[in-house]
Amino acid sequence: MSDQVVLEPQAPGEDVSGLASALRISVMRLSRRLRSERKSEGLTVSQLSVLGIIDREGPMSPTQLAAAERVQPPSMTRVVAVLEDLGLVHREPHPTDRRQCVLALTDRGRDLLVEDRNRRQAWLACQLNELLPAERDALCSAVPVIERLADS
Fold this sequence. Notes:
Blueprint: H1 17-36, H2 45-57, H3 62-69, H4 73-85, E1 89-93, E2 101-105, H5 107-129, H6 133-151
Antiparallel strand pairs: 1-2
Helix pairs in contact: 3-4
């Protein structure tokens, strides 16, 4: 017996708690499964997330990183210290404020991030190849909606 949840389309104004529950569980399970594909030198999810933010957004101050990760600055200071000790990020002068610094990826940090992304992407691509075309089309349609939810 499959543990797949089949949901009916929701009418406007209808209670969406069942959809919310099913989506939450599905997204969490997929996230957990993708995390299990990580083999990134024992880094935590937070540490990898910080590397990813710096890669996508460019060099950032520790304060900006804390805001992006929605954590307190002291927590970010600890994460950054580990990443610096491992040689994955380094400090550079702030482009406009001499009192501050920004954190940038080292070549080693970028290589680790690329390897991690490639491994997870390859796993997910294999899984997507197993889906029916209509299932892949449904996922294509859902991506912008999921992005909108993630950004809210």
